[in-house]
């Protein structure tokens, strides 16, 4: 019977809720009539430490040796057995350890989530930088290719410019020959024609005047354009590569013109015009000025006349 009573007492003792260490010390302090401030002053501790012990809020980030030292000093002051206090602390340690593990897991989860967001933002910025760099490189390659093609075309078409410049004096020579031959063809008729004796001097004076009128008329009518021909004039203020084709696809000019040069072209409209440096060219079409201000300086201008 005695053994059964002891087992029952032991079972009731095991199942009874354990008193937390802070509650144990607080009850003893209140029995002695000590305030938290008095205990803190006598133990030379901060008041917040005593308040945390009384409310069983032991600092988890504090070294365990310090915590046990505070509790032993508190127990000696209020007259509680140190072994009982440390045993109560050990009993509460398992629950605190589990709670700390849960808090650590929660913090770890939040940290991993935060780090994943930072990585996503970092990768997004990296992809944007790569995209901008690729676009910049592609634009530079396209501009370089266009400049290279213009230079190659200029190098191929330079002989055509030389041939045209050589042909221009030939046209002037033909015109001068026509003007020179015209009076010689008239002179025989003047010599062979019989003149009356009464008025030889007057007729000799009038015949050269008629010859001069015919020569002037031939000079004035020689530059007249056909009805389907149009005139383009250009004045170059800077070096410029140029190409002009008429309605039949014939190339009227292709090559480089130097600053200070003038150019006149005639042909059947419409004309396809390409200017390497439109900002350095002043142009008229059919005696009307052509507005080139719409084209960007430094860029190749392509257009058709009439606009």
TrEMBL record:
A UniProt-annotated Pfam family: HTH_25
InterPro entries listed in its UniProt record: Bact_Cytoskel_RodZ, Cro/C1-type_HTH, Lambda_DNA-bd_dom_sf, RodZ-like_C
Chain ranges passing through the membrane: 118-138
Database matches in SUPFAM superfamilies: lambda repressor-like DNA-binding domains
GO molecular function: DNA binding
CDD domains: HTH_XRE
UniProt KW keywords: Membrane, Transmembrane, Transmembrane helix
Top-level division of the source organism's lineage: Bacteria
Residue span, Cytoskeleton protein RodZ-like C-terminal domain: 233-304
Name of protein: DUF4115 domain-containing protein
């Amino acid at each position: 019977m005695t053994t059964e009573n002891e087992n029952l007492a032991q079972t009731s003792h095991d199942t009874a809720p354990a008193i937390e260490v802070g509650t144990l010390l607080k009850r003893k302090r209140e029995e002695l009539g000590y305030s938290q401030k008095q205990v803190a002053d006598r133990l030379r501790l901060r008041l917040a430490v005593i308040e945390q012990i009384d409310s069983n809020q032991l600092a988890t980030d504090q070294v365990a040796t310090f915590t046990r030292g505070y509790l032993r000093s508190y127990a000696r002051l209020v007259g509680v057995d140190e072994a009982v206090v440390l045993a109560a602390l050990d009993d509460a340690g398992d629950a605190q350890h589990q709670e700390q593990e849960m808090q650590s897991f929660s913090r770890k989860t939040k940290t991993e989530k935060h780090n994943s967001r930072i990585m996503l933002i970092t990768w997004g910025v990296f992809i944007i930088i790569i995209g901008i760099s690729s676009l910049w490189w592609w634009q530079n390659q396209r501009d370089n290719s266009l400049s290279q093609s213009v230079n190659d075309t200029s190098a191929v078409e330079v002989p055509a410019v030389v041939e045209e410049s050589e042909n221009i004096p030939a046209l002037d020579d033909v015109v001068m020959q026509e003007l020179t031959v015209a009076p010689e063809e008239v002179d025989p008729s003047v010599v062979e024609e019989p003149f009356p004796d009464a008025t030889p001097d007057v007729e000799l004076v009038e015949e050269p005047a008629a010859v001069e009128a015919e020569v002037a008329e031939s000079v004035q009518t020689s530059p007249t354009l056909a009805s389907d021909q149009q005139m383009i004039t250009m004045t170059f203020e800077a070096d410029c590569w140029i190409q002009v084709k008429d309605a039949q696809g014939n190339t009227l000019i292709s090559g480089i013109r130097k600053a200070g040069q003038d150019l006149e072209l005639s042909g059947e409209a419409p004309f396809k015009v390409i200017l390497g440096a439109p900002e350095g060219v002043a142009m008229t079409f059919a005696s009307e000025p052509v507005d080139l201000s719409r084209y960007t300086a430094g860029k190749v201008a392509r257009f058709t006349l009439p606009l």
